[in-house]
Each structure stands twice: as structure tokens, then as C-alpha cells.
Write a structure and sequence with these properties.
By secondary structure, this protein is an alpha/beta fold. The protein has one domain: Rossmann fold (3-Layer(aba) Sandwich). It is about 50% helix and about 15% strand. The strands form two sheets. Strands 2-3-1-4-8 form a five-stranded parallel β-sheet, with helices on both faces. The protein has a three-stranded antiparallel β-sheet with strand order 6-5-7. Strand 5 and strand 6 (about 135-140) form a beta hairpin. Helix 6 crosses helix 8 (about 165-190). The longest helix has 24 residues, at about 165-190. The termini are close together. About 30% of the residues are buried. The structure holds BIS(adenosine)-5'-pentaphosphate (AP5). BIS(adenosine)-5'-pentaphosphate (AP5) binds near residues 53 and 205.
């Protein structure tokens, strides 16, 4: 099963990909996480990508396509995988189809995370992430955070992502409408797009997701 999670920033793609990975054992391939790892490692690619990410702009297609192409050839991707945050432009979607064709594979389903823009801003501006254990929290949505786990671990380091500041969030949403929304049309034309209501509570969204991905 090759799944693509598509939707605006903050719609819960990463949260749901993590849950599904645990249940199905398909790895979560998040280009955002890969780029942030490269930044933390001080890699040249990461430092170049950071210039785009800090402003809320997209990293050039050639960079992310190269990252994904290498990753999907890994042995743990044989049974299936979840693409979270890729493709984000129509050229990326076309490149993905090309790479998969060479491997005699294809995208099986594209799940579109549908939700209202005002709520996205609340979610993104309240998000906190632990740079050590990778856990994600929200300052408002109580039942959803695991803050106590990080508070009990002296090694944990909870931060606000630099692209979750208000002015950057605004640009990310504009970039989404300009460059990523057309990707939904691309998949709709080939009958691969299914939508879920991403505004519900996490467990309700997860149930909708499981109903789609049987
Ligand atoms: P990336 O890391 O992919 O960010 P994004 O797509 O903007 O998505 P987010 O991680 O912000 O949101 P999400 O939908 O995963 O929501 P989440 O589950 O975290 O990309 C970052 C940057 O990297 C890009 O701007 C770009 O520069 C670069 N990049 C990455 N991929 C690229 C590509 N393919 N091409 C070019 N550049 C690329 O949830 C958000 C918050 O809401 C959390 O606090 C969570 O706890 C909370 N939450 C989640 N679900 C719920 C719910 N149901 N109810 C209440 N709260 C919820």
C-alpha cells in the first residue's frame, strides 16, 4: 500500500501518519522531518533547505525528489509506506509517478485532510515539539498532548518550530494554496483522491482514515 497524505499545514497529516505507522507497520516518509534532521545534523543540504523553511517557502523540487527517491528504495518500504508532506507541487507528483513506475509500483490512495483555515492557524501556533524524543504537543488541546512525558524526562527539549510563528504560518498557507492545492486536482483527475474531515478529534479522524485504508 502506497499512501499519500495531502492537506494544508496543520491539518494533522503527521499526527495521523504516526498512528497509522504504529498500527500497520508502514513507515512514515515525511520530507519535513527528513529536512529537519538534515538541519540538526548540520548537513549542507539541511542548511540550504533551512533558508526556505524558515520563511515558509518550499524547498526546491530537485532536492526533495532526490530525498524521497532514495528513501522509497529502502528495504523497509517494500510492504508499503505513507508519504507525509510529499508531493507538494504538481512536478513532484509527476516525478513520484515516474519513480514508482520504474519500480513497477504506484500510488494506491491519496487522502486529503480537509479543514477550515482559522482552525489551522490555532493548531500551528499552539504546536510544540520535543527535539529529543520527537513527541508533539499542543498548548490548548489537552487530551491530545503528552506533555507530562517530556516534563518527566530531563533530556527532553520542547520548542516551537521556527515556521510556526504567525507571519510564517500565513506564508505557508499562501504557498499551500498556490503550489500544493493543484496537487489535489492532479490526483482527482486520475480518481485517486479521497477526503476526510480533519477538523474532528484525533481519534475520530483516525477512525475515518482506517475506514478508507482497508
Ligand atoms: P512539514 O513538516 O511537512 O510541514 P507541513 O506540511 O506544513 O505540515 P505540518 O507538520 O505543519 O502539519 P501536519 O499536517 O503534519 O499537522 P500535525 O500533525 O503536525 O514541512 C515543513 C517545511 O519543510 C515546508 O514549509 C517546506 O519548507 C519544507 N518541505 C517539506 N516537504 C516539502 C516538499 N515536499 N517540497 C518542498 N518543501 C518541503 O498537527 C499540527 C498541530 O495540531 C499539532 O500540535 C497537533 O498536536 C495538533 N493536532 C493534530 N491533529 C489534531 C486534531 N485532530 N485535533 C486537534 N489538534 C490536532
Amino acid at each position: 500500500m502506497i499512501l499519500v497524505f495531502l492537506g494544508p499545514p496543520g491539518s494533522g497529516k503527521g499526527t495521523q501518519a504516526k498512528k497509522l505507522t504504529t498500527e500497520k507497520n508502514w513507515p512514515q516518509l515525511s520530507t519535513g522531518d527528513m529536512l529537519r534532521t538534515a538541519i540538526s545534523a548540520g548537513a549542507h543540504l539541511g542548511l540550504e533547505a533551512k533558508k526556505f523553511m524558515d520563511l515558509g517557502n518550499l524547498v526546491p523540487d530537485s532536492v526533495v525528489i532526490g530525498l524521497i527517491e532514495d528513501r522509497i528504495r529502502s528495504p523497509d518500504c517494500i510492504e508499503g509506506f505513507i508519504l507525509d508532506g510529499f508531493p507538494r507541487t504538481v512536478p513532484q507528483a509527476e516525478a513520484l509517478d515516474g519513480v514508482l513506475l520504474k519500480l513497477s509500483r504506484k500510488v494506491d490512495q491519496v487522502v486529503f485532510f480537509e479543514m477550515d483555515e482559522k482552525e489551522l492557524v490555532t493548531r500551528l501556533s499552539g504546536r510544540r515539539t520535543c527535539t529529543v524524543c520527537g513527541k508533539m504537543f499542543h498548548v490548548t488541546f489537552g487530551p491530545f498532548h503528552n506533555q507530562e512525558v517530556c516534563e518527566q524526562n530531563p533530556l527532553c527539549n520542547v520548542i516551537q518550530r521556527s515556521d510556526d510563528l504567525p507571519e510564517v504560518i500565513q506564508n505557508r498557507l499562501e504557498v499551500y494554496h498556490r503550489s500544493t492545492a493543484p496537487v489535489a486536482e492532479f490526483y482527482k483527475k486520475t480518481n485517486r483522491l479521497k477526503s476526510i474531515n480533519a477538523a474532528e478529534k484525533p481519534e475520530v479522524v483516525f477512525q475515518s482514515l482506517k475506514n478508507l485504508v482497508k
